[in-house]
Amino acid sequence: MITSSVTGLGGSSIPAPSPDIMDATQQTLPREDKKFLTEKNMTVEEYVKNYFSDIPVMVEVAKCESRFRQYDENGEVLRGVQNSLDRGVMQINEFYHNEDSEKLGFDILTIEGNTAYARYLFEKYGLRPWNSSSKCWGRSTAYSEYKELAINK
Questions:
Q1: If phi over 0 gives left and psi between -120 and 50 gives alpha, with beta otherwise, what is residue 2?
Q2: If exposure means fewest CB atoms within 10 Å of the residue's CB, which of 19, 30, 68, 107 is most exposed?
Q3: pTM for this entry
Q4: Distance CA 90, CA 115 (A)
């Protein structure tokens, strides 16, 4: 992979999602997870916006990559349209990232692991892992602000 000149945005540590938002979505979830809908009443979009509140461009990436969906209409983890190995809200590719994500303790098939590993990738490589959707997120205000941050580093 190519390295980025942008690092950090919170140092080298990868913060875990706060416990009060960890299990909540308003999408169709596997049965055992549906109890969180009524307890938390948080959508995947709200989760992503909260988790990436310090990196707004990653919210735009999630919007472009998955339209804020972690699961498909059958309650299965979302697969990519162009590449079925792209998984979840951040469309992390299983072929390229499953082994490394597991070594770091992230399960990219969960929203928590998918977003946390996406943060790791962003801190290490910037937006390069999501270049294929750059025509979408590259027009956002969040990206123009990120570009300014990258130039000033």
A1: beta
A2: 19
A3: 0.71
A4: 7
